[in-house]
Amino acid sequence: MSYAEENGIYWEQLRNGDKQALFALYNNTYFHLVRFGLKICANDELVKDCITQLFLQLWGKRDTLKPVTNVQSYLFTAFKRDLIDQLEYQSKIHTAVHRMTDKEGENELSYEEIIIRVQQDEEIKQRLHQAIKQLTPRQVELIRLRFFEGMSYEQIAGRTSQSVKTAYNTVYDAIKTLRKLLKQTP
Q1: Which is higher by pLDDT, 26 or 98?
Q2: Distance between CA atoms of 154 and 165, rounded to whole angstroms?
Q3: What is the pTM of this model?
């Protein structure tokens, strides 16, 4: 019996759910596929992984596999497609990672810039804290509910027993006051 005939028999047995036929087909073609794959890609681990993945896919699809006249050609074509897909996928990941690290490098701040930004953030927090102290207790409460607790104006109105329009106007007035106070302080 020839190599091609033997693989044809294994293929049919595989289609009928014979796990031993899968292993026999795997063993019969493994080294041929490795040699072929290494001509496409020098990464032997990737080549071996793709071969294993191919046979796992065949086993998973065994119920829907069609009869094939040239099993070796079918396996080589399917393997080549999987290997190229995997190489393209890895290339995309590599490119994405490269872009991310480039952007991180561009956005990297010096130690002095980081200290300046931290100081500026602290100054802004202090100024905001001082400005909030100048609001009415009702304005402070509504600002807290709206921006720190994330409530809608309807929820604020329900909690504070006032109309939605009053809640909106109170928050609007508080923001206007805060803007004015923050612009005044250097």
Answers
A1: 26
A2: 9
A3: 0.53
